[in-house]
Amino acid sequence: MYAAVVAPFVIAAISLTRERWYPVLDLAMTELRVRDVGGADTPLIGLPGRIGDFPDQGSHPGPLSFWLLAPFRWITAGRAYGLQLGSLVINAALSVYVVEMLRRAGREIGSDGRRGELVGVLVGLAIVATVVRGYGFDLLAHPWNPYFPLLWWLAIVIATWRVLDGVAWSAVFVVTAGTVVAQTHVPYLPLAVSMVGVCAIALVVRARRGGLDSVRTPLVVGGGAGLVLWLPPFVDQVVESPGNVSMLVDHFAADQPGESIGLVSAAELMLRHLDAPSAIVQLIAGPEAFVELSMRPDGSILGGLVTLAVWVVAGWFAFRSGHRSLRAAHLVLVVAALVGWFAMSRIFGAVWFYLTLWAWATTTLVVATVVWTATVRWSVRGASTTRTDTSEMEPGRSTPPRSSATGVVAAFAAVVAVGAFVSPFGQRPPDPELSQGLGLVLPNTITAIETGVGPAPGPNATYVVFWQDATFIGAQGYGMVNELERAGLDVGVHPTWRVPVTPQRVLALDEIDAEVHVVTGSYIEQWRANPEYVEVARGDPRSAVEVAEYARLRAAVASALAESACPECIDILDVNLFGVVVTARERQLDPDLIDDLERMVDLGQPISVFLTPPGNSF
């Protein structure tokens, strides 16, 4: 059973060994922090986010994702692959945990323990396989902070249901996992708090009914775990000025960065993520259905309204049925949906798809609970044809579902599981074009530094890394810092980058011996014109066909921008391509235009590395 759960993750882990990965942008920032775990600069807060204003922006609440990934980096001898391996192992463990929770629930809820276990396992496999296929391994092997909590959230909701169903010890997992997701990406903070709150209320009610002894130990262990796990960000708050907690409070409460999308727009957004009919069609068509649907800003709410209507009917029956476990499942999901709606309403600026991916796990559980409700209803009706008195049925149990219903669940689990199993073959690292581009120039850059080419004094000197990027806001520059540090060189950054690259890596002008500049796209010719700048590496990750495609897209995009609501975007098209993408999204320009711009980003541009004397970046 568990081999079937873990197998796709193993295949993905093996597939990812075929291509060396050079993390860029946020993933490079992540590895820098993971590398620091266990040392004097062990991180106490999370990755920088859209919190405040650059260069003094705040970060996500806490460091637990870095701490969890660090052992996998150690066992892979400091390779970037360790971050991917860690993500896959953690997500595989969460998947097993979900199936095991549902196996035990099936045994306890069903009137036939052995058969109930089988149904629980099948339902668990169906849920896990659906979510894994819906998100895809591009996300589940990706240690980026918006993706890292996805399966954690699925497990948290199910564990919260188990607490309401009488399993007090599941509250310890809810507190621990809720802390992980809340620290990793701030949109999960209200979601996690709501589930912990539901568990706390359930345990207090149980204590009042059955005595404190029945829940004392889980309460103490869970509360203690929460206090310990939240210590790092509060230590940062005490030792830093300003502390990150203060910056988060100021950003979301005192100094709001503009208007949030509000409850009405959030309701539409929530309904698009509750669109089970579209999700089912997309899941059949291929992997990453949830990503595809989340990236449709103009998606219909009709499917979501249909799902909501069916859910309301199912919930009405569940609460009339007296079935304790079924009612608990609906209650938890109602809380998750309402808090999720509120969390969406607090989104500021562009509604990036990754901010709401968690909602598909909630929707998957809604569908599973509706199917469960229908099965219970069907079972009760079937039992009533053979029993005239149903008053003796236990409210927490149901009669065994008909074999045909069990067969449907099993068939669905098998079909979706096969799809999840196939999808990890051929898995590639994140941002492959940017990674490849960095990989093309890295060997010659290290060789030039170690042999003292041009202004480089040699391997024992100190270098500041700077970048001028026409494509993706310095993504490969961050990657260069990470890779040169991996190579054992003494490198750092200008004070401007103190938050994303960490304060301990900031260098003053009098500390550096030479500079390493990563330059892309249209900036390269400008740098070649200066005789003081020594070009030590160059590369272009694109094939001849892709170069031609980029040129074609560039011409089409320029023409479309001239006729759009952003003609001024043409002026920065060749110097800040990603900035044009952001503006196009914020102004809700033609989706085809946005697709073309994002394809240009994916294709990448030429990259060169220059060595210069000190002072050119200060």
Structural commentary:
By secondary structure, this protein is mostly helical. The chain has 25 helices and five strands. A five-stranded mixed sheet has the order 2-1-3-5-4. Strand 1, helix 21 and strand 2 (490-493) form a beta-alpha-beta unit. Helix 1 runs antiparallel to helix 4, helix 7 runs parallel beside helix 9 and helix 23 (544-562) packs antiparallel against helix 25 (591-603). The longest helix is centred in the N-terminal third of the chain and has 29 residues, at 81-109. The chain is globular and about 85 Å long.
Compute the number of strand runs: 5
Radius of gyration: 26 Å
Question: Percent of residues in beta strands?
Answer: under 5%
Overall outline: globular
Distance between the termini: 59 Å
**Biggest sheet overview:** 5 strands, mixed
The helix/strand series, from N terminus to C terminus, equals: HHHHHHHHHHHHHHHHHHHHEHEEHEHHHE
Number of helices: 25
Low-confidence parts, pLDDT < 50 over ≥5 residues? 385-404
Strand order of the largest sheet: 2-1-3-5-4
Round the mean pLDDT to the nearest integer and report it.
90
Layout of strands and helices, then pairs:
Blueprint: H1 2-15, H2 25-36, H3 64-75, H4 81-109, H5 113-135, H6 137-140, H7 150-164, H8 170-184, H9 188-210, H10 216-229, H11 231-239, H12 244-254, H13 262-272, H14 276-285, H15 289-294, H16 302-321, H17 324-345, H18 359-384, H19 403-422, H20 432-451, E1 462-468, H21 475-486, E2 490-493, E3 514-520, H22 523-528, E4 534-539, H23 544-562, H24 577-586, H25 591-603, E5 607-612
Parallel strand pairs: 1-2, 1-3
Antiparallel strand pairs: 3-5, 4-5
Helix pairs in contact: 1-4, 1-19, 2-3, 2-21, 3-4, 4-5, 4-7, 5-18, 5-19, 7-8, 7-9, 7-17, 8-9, 8-10, 9-17, 13-17, 16-17, 16-18, 17-18, 20-21, 23-25, 24-25
